[in-house]
Amino acid sequence: MVTARPVGIVDGVDYQQTGLVRKIDVQTIRFALNSGAMVLLSPLGYSPTGEAFNLSMEDVAASTAIALDADKLIVLAETGGVFDSDGNLRREVSEAEAMQLLAGDTLPEDIGFTLRHALRACEGGVARAHIIPYGLDGSVLLELFQHDGVGTMLVEETLEALREAGPDDVGGLLALLRPLEEDGTLVRRDRGLIEREIANFTVIEHDGVIFGCAALYAFPEAGVGEMAALAVNPQVQGRGDGERLLQRIEQRARAAGLKRLFVLTTRTMHWFLKRGFVLASVDQLPKQRRGLYNWQRKSLVLIKQL
Ligand SMILES: CC(C)(COP(=O)(O)OP(=O)(O)OC[C@H]1O[C@@H](n2cnc3c(N)ncnc32)[C@H](O)[C@@H]1OP(=O)(O)O)[C@@H](O)C(=O)NCCC(=O)NCCS
To answer: Is residue 176 located within the same domain as residue 149?
Structure first.
């Protein structure tokens, strides 16, 4: 199923029986899968003339994922993820961020090697690549079925741009938020307020149209942040944009040194509970925010540790 070629002579060093993947026989793999078999590939490949080559597991895995047009590639690695310079695990890394990390010299060699192959898979059309620790019992299940997971997920870049908002986005934000304000889901924000607070917003834009937004308000003395005005255009709900906005706001909050994130909601409690928030009380809000709490609206307070 795996055809190999020699690495050859690099900088005067003959790599002899060390090889690279040349081709994956997708047809045979699919045939085996369709007949109910499980396919296990070893990091060993043969040249068309029958010579055996030692391949890297990552090369075989990424090449196979691309050839199969897989939805996911999961790599169980010793390091089990990408860590930032403060030693915090990066839960999600975009293709562009992965390229930046690989271009710098901060990554340990082993994780750089794994990330390079995960990136190659994403560039080859695999939607997500996960790097998770093999030393942790149940890590595959924890990564796939827990919201935050236990490793790093590399995400294929989509045409949509997730970015911080600028003054030109005020009109788009108003168009997105207005209907939700009118039906009472969100509190009303006038143009002037959005203009003043534009830097707090993160938006998802597609072809020049704002399809989603969320805002972060920091209360640094209390070490907490509020996520507000989370909204996704009803036409594109259910595709994970809400989730991406939440993750970006969490990232921004962590970068600002905040330890907890809270939201006030009247109708979306379950969405937040599923994403690691727990119910809290108005007393747990920072003092300044408590004063502004609208007792008529009776929003629920939900908090998440970052
Ligand atoms: C909440 C919201 C931002 C989610 O955006 P999204 O892009 O659809 O989110 P995702 O694609 O990441 O998640 C979709 C999942 O959330 C669920 N969901 C959507 N609204 C929900 C709600 N009010 N309560 C519970 N679950 C909800 C969907 O059923 C879907 O579940 P599934 O994955 O099991 O199919 C979007 O529904 C929205 O804009 N709602 C109106 C505004 C709002 O309520 N904002 C929060 C104010 S505090």
So the answer is: no
